[in-house]
Amino acid sequence: MKGYLRSDGRKGVRNVILVTYLVECAHHVARAIVNESSRDDVQLIGFPGCYPNDYSLKIMEGLCTHPNVAGVLILSLGCEGFNREKLANTVEASGRPIETLVIQNSGGTKKTIEAGVKKISELLVSAEAVEMVPMDMSELVVGTICGGSDGTSGIGANPAVGHCFDQLIKKNAICIFEETGELIGCEQIMAERAITPELGEEIMKSVEKAEQYYTQMGYGSFAPGNAEGGLTTQEEKSMGAYAKSGSSKIHGLIKPGDIPSQGGLYLMDVVPDGSPMYGFPNIVDSAEIVEMIASGSHLILFTTGRGSVVGSAISPVIKVCANPETYENLSDDMDINAGKVINGEATVQQVGDEIYELVVKVAQGQQSKSEALGHQEFVLTYKKFEAIGPSCLPTAR
Amino acid sequence: MINKHFVLLNDTDNVFVCCKQLLIDESTNLEGVDVIMTTDIVVGHKIARKNVLKGEKIIKYGVSIGSATQDIVFGEHIHMHNMKSDYIASHTRQSRSGEE
After folding, report:
1. H or E segment at A72?
2. Does A220 reach chain B within 8 Å, measured CB to CB?
3. Is residue A397 part of a domain?
4. By CB atoms within 10 Å of each CB, which of A193, A347, A392, B52 scores lowest?
5. Taking CA atoms, what residue in B is nearest to A230?
6. Domain assignment present for A212
7. pLDDT digits over A222-235, tens only?
8. Is A343 an interface residue toward B (CB < 8 Å)?
9. Is the pLDDT of residue B91 over 90?
10. What is the longest distance spanned by two Cα atoms in chain A?
11. Are residues A95 and A184 in the same domain?
12. How confident is the model at residue B96 (pLDDT cuts 50, 70, 90)?
């Protein structure tokens, strides 16, 4: 396997130029620049709000210095609250080329688009010069999420991803699973898998926090489609979702944008700290995908039962479909048919091995279905977090 | 799989999960006992493996996934109309509490 070597020593499996707008007011100009390029590897991300927010700055820094990213063009209106200088400095310090265009100082829409198109062609030249070097499986970071879950998800797709995770962790890769709100009911068995009792306590606390948060919001992390697909309760959905984590020990509890430094399995606590402030923890699956990418995920394993079609900017998304009927209906969007498990045509282990093989292929450059279809969804909103505690990333393994 | 329509995920479960849909009035054999469906059961949904009393835990994957809100008979569909979460209420597009 080969990866794109970045100046900071990290290695990527894609070579993307990001155009990022820092307020909705700069969105149109940023999108026009991306559209003008007509290239899959020039991608649009952005933040809508005008008020500053530490979380969104941290996530944006994680994304713009992601190993899959070769260079960045920042689009600012000029008066928004986002700290564009800090973002630019962080990207520059990572050794990546960075350009900033401020629309208010650049002559408005037309002239900024023209200037942006020129900057993109320069960034592409430097991206093409990036060296590809051997990359080991231990340097890979893989995240997993479930979306559009149903009664089949926990039987086929999720345990198969868990099996794939176990294989990746044997190779010392970093694997991330998440959404503590979708692990309500699993906190005890999950805590028992922590490498230290203190980490176990932190895991328990994170799930209790999630339960309190969602209760105050008035809705659990449970969509009407989950019920139509046969899931009845939050804890039933959780038990299915939990299977994605496999059977390895849990090495740490991270928050969005924290980047694990050693191989192993990590739980991401995506529920904000403090009393509910900016709304639902994650308004949609894409927000969780973005957080796992900000924590370094080179690719994402997305399990579904009802069927989802989303992909992502920056990192490829691989779809694992648990429901054989959904697979038949949406096969153009699905990379792996885990419906074979519930049909009795394959074992969880066989499908898990199939996922592992596809992870290697996609890491080597093969496009996932959503990637080939041009899916580059992106969502980033306001949140508030405190830093993780000392027990969350034990140094002893 | 106990037959082509249902799977048992754990020996201690009191539910089966549908893996191939079965329509109302169709019959199936569950661990040696014939039972006629009283409603359509589609893929991913659960039916009772035994009679369950109101308040009893519903066991799937070998763990509790909630409690029965009424008595449930062998072979009956188990969903929001007869069970609930022990943690946080579910919701549908029509109702926050998830009542059908």
Report:
1. strand A69-76
2. yes
3. no
4. A347
5. B45
6. yes
7. 888 999 999 999 99
8. yes
9. no
10. 63
11. no
12. low
